Amino acid sequence: MEPDTPQSPQAAVKVRCCIVGGGPAGMMLGYLLGRAGIDVMVLEKHADFFRDFRGDTVHPSTLQVMDELGLIACFLTLPYQPMQKIDGLFGGTPVRIADLRRLHTKYPFIAFMPQWDFLNFLREAGKRFASLKVMMNTEAVDLIRRGETIAGVRAKTPDGIVDIEADLTIACDGRHSIVRERAGLEVEEIGAPMDVLWFRVGRRADETENLFARVEPGKMMVTFDRGDYWQCAYVIAKGQYDAVKARGLQALTDDIVRMAPILKSGIVDVKSFDDFKLLTVAINRLKRWTRPGLLCIGDAAHAMSPVGGVGVNLAVQDAVATANLLADKLQYGCPSEGELDAVRRRREFPVKMTQAMQVIVQNNIISGALQGGDRPLKVPLVVRLITALPWLQGIPARLIALGVRPEHVQSKAAPGSYRNDPVGIIPR
């Protein structure tokens, strides 16, 4: 426990399930369990969701989940930018990495949507479930234990320390999870050769470009059209941020504009290195996802590389699988550790396969590109084949858009779980 954390709580509450973390996994699981009539509380340490998230891609697998919950019509009234083709420049050569139009799915596009809109939508939609409570500004600082069993969390709130006793605690608090750290769960590090500088620049109404990725010797960049601005990811070799800073801001922005001339007018928005956010890329996963009374899912169980932008959608898939496997059992108390481990057994294969594909891309494309050198950058054979044979473009499209094993909502809405909808957000 942190040295300045009071040892005694000022209050205590009891719930059936406490979800730590209000990200995509936590908010989706809270919604599903509230819908199933489970007494569930979601803890989010921030006062709101309005932050510059790295994961703003809502993939067809998640759109399908929203459809199965009857939420899709209202969800797609939120502002978003659709993307169906993933195109790039590799050493100056145009390539096409994937074409989602080839998918036989109801929503064959990726929706670029601010993650705070996605999370706010789930929170507002969940207000109609009397059994769901979302606690903002509430940070888990330790676990409550009864012998070997995790019996809830101790949380810091604006009103003091609160003990939240729970039959089941679910960690959805990300790759730096305090819950998994306190539980002593071992993390297997897989590694990544790059880090990412995340930034945005202004976009004029007449600026349009469909290029997604640009790869040059020693450099790589990804750009997303977000309507009134460009969201950008400048990829650097692992641990080289200090070297990039030593070259100076002007050298960095010159490189950026050289790679992406479309950013020339908006680059004035980047005034200092404070306008960049360093994302330290990691790929890892837990060897064990559970303790008695505790389950980890999402990034708390497996951190993903940004390759493919699949992290948010894997987290949502974890949440759907968790509700499918555990919602009925939670009606009667905490599932056994063996029953909790069914979530790992269900989700570990798609996680491992996705991470393995990310490692292949990292080792065979990104690492080589970031090494730089004087030799011209050659398009890898597999990328040349995908670009030349359009029917192949459906394979990476499926892996990116739907994943290895997409989950479908099987948990049921409990009779009487709905209450008056104060925001008028959704039909049943």
Structure, explained:
With 428 residues, this protein is α+β, with helices and mostly antiparallel strands. Helix content is 31%, strand content 27%. It has 11 helices and 21 strands. It has helices spanning 24-35, 60-68, 72-75, 115-126, 178-183, 241-247, 249-259, 311-330, 337-371, 381-388, 394-401; strands at 11-20, 40-43, 57-58, 81-83, 85-90, 93-99, 110-112, 132-135, 139-146, 149-157, 160-171, 187-189, 194-202, 211-216, 219-225, 229-237, 277-279, 284-286, 290-291, 294-296, 302-303. Strands 1, 2, 8, 9, 10, 11, 19 and 20 form an 8-stranded mixed beta sheet that branches. A 7-stranded mixed beta sheet has the order 6-5-14-15-16-13-17. A 3-stranded antiparallel beta sheet has the order 3-7-4. β10 and β11 (160-171) form a beta hairpin. α1 packs parallel to α4 (115-126), α1 packs parallel to α8 (311-330) and α8 (311-330) runs antiparallel to α9 (337-371). It starts with 10 loop residues before the first strand and ends in a 27-residue tail after the last helix. Residues 1-6 have low confidence and may be disordered.
Task: Give a brief description.
The protein is α+β, with helices and mostly antiparallel strands and 428 residues long.
List the helices and strands and how they pair.
Elements (H helix, E strand, L loop, with lengths): L10 E10 L3 H12 L4 E4 L13 E2 L1 H9 L3 H4 L5 E3 L1 E6 L2 E7 L10 E3 L2 H12 L5 E4 L3 E8 L2 E9 L2 E12 L6 H6 L3 E3 L4 E9 L8 E6 L2 E7 L3 E9 L3 H7 L1 H11 L17 E3 L4 E3 L3 E2 L2 E3 L5 E2 L7 H20 L6 H35 L9 H8 L5 H8 L27
Parallel strand pairs: 1-2, 1-11, 2-8, 5-14, 11-20
Antiparallel strand pairs: 3-7, 4-7, 5-6, 9-10, 10-11, 12-18, 13-16, 13-17, 14-15, 15-16, 18-21, 19-20
Helix pairs in contact: 1-4, 1-8, 8-9
